[in-house]
Design a protein that fits this description.
The chain has three helices and eleven strands, in the order ββαββαβαββββββ. With about 220 residues, the chain is α+β, with helices and mostly antiparallel strands. The protein has a single domain, classed as Alpha-Beta Plaits (2-Layer Sandwich). Strands 1, 2, 3, 4, 5, 8, 9, 10 and 11 form a nine-stranded mixed beta sheet that branches. A two-stranded antiparallel ribbon has the order 6-7. A hairpin with a 1-residue loop joins strand 6 and strand 7.
């Protein structure tokens, strides 16, 4: 059994990076299901539930901007992080020594309605009414475990309850093929990325279930 919700997500910029672009960041045309799941988890998440994205409503025109961003080119090695966790040794990286400027093709002025539901991961804590009520209250009060963002942490998302489905800029466009899009990462299978064919019909993208044949590695 599943339990649904609907939220509105807005932001000045968004960058949902295409994994095939290695050198510079290039965003997909719209928010990916994995990014939408991350926003829902920022509002409310428990080990006993798993969010599944059902539909993405694209309200605004798809517009891109070219910008330059400062990024850190290196990561702290996993072994160093584990050692710090074990013995409490200092953990830091000098950003000034690893900073580089990179171009990015990002989305501008994004506005989506996300329809989703949660499913239980087991029988423990499987109280649907409790989880649905907590999520609703946290959403209405603007409470988050961390700031929801649109692909990159420097692009914060404004998250609101979506009582009604609003008209899309693409409502008169019968169909637009957006190509293969990242659905999510299969963490139990060695963090394998899985994709689906994203087709927007009158401004709405129907996201296939994670286990369906439409989702491929």
């Amino acid at each position: 059994m599943s339990y649904g919700c609907r939220i509105r997500v807005q932001g000045d910029y968004g960058c949902f990076t295409r994994p095939e672009m290695k050198a510079e960041r290039v965003s997909y045309d719209v928010i990916t299901p994995s990014a939408a799941r991350g926003i829902l988890e920022a509002i409310y998440w428990k080990p006993s539930i798993r969010w599944e994205i059902d539909r993405i409503h694209v309200l605004n025109p798809i517009r891109f901007d070219n910008i330059r961003r400062n990024e850190v080119s290196a990561k702290i090695p996993t072994g160093t992080a584990k050692k710090a966790m074990k013995d409490g040794s200092p953990l830091f990286m000098a950003a000034e020594e690893n900073r580089q400027q990179r171009a990015a093709l990002v989305l501008r002025n994004v506005d989506y309605i996300i329809e989703a539901h949660f499913e239980f991961t087991g029988e423990e804590d499987a109280n649907p009414g409790k989880h649905a009520d907590i999520f609703r209250r946290r959403l209405e009060k603007g409470q988050h475990f961390h700031q929801p963002y649109l692909g990159c942490r420097e692009f914060p998302a404004r998250v609101l309850p979506a009582e009604d489905i609003l008209p899309s800029f693409f409502s008169k466009e019968p169909e637009r093929d957006l190509g293969w899009m990242l659905h999510d990462i299969d963490y139990p299978d060695g963090m394998t990325p899985r994709f689906f064919r994203a087709v927007m019909k009158q401004g709405i993208i129907h996201v296939p279930p994670w286990q369906s044949a439409e989702v491929r590695s």
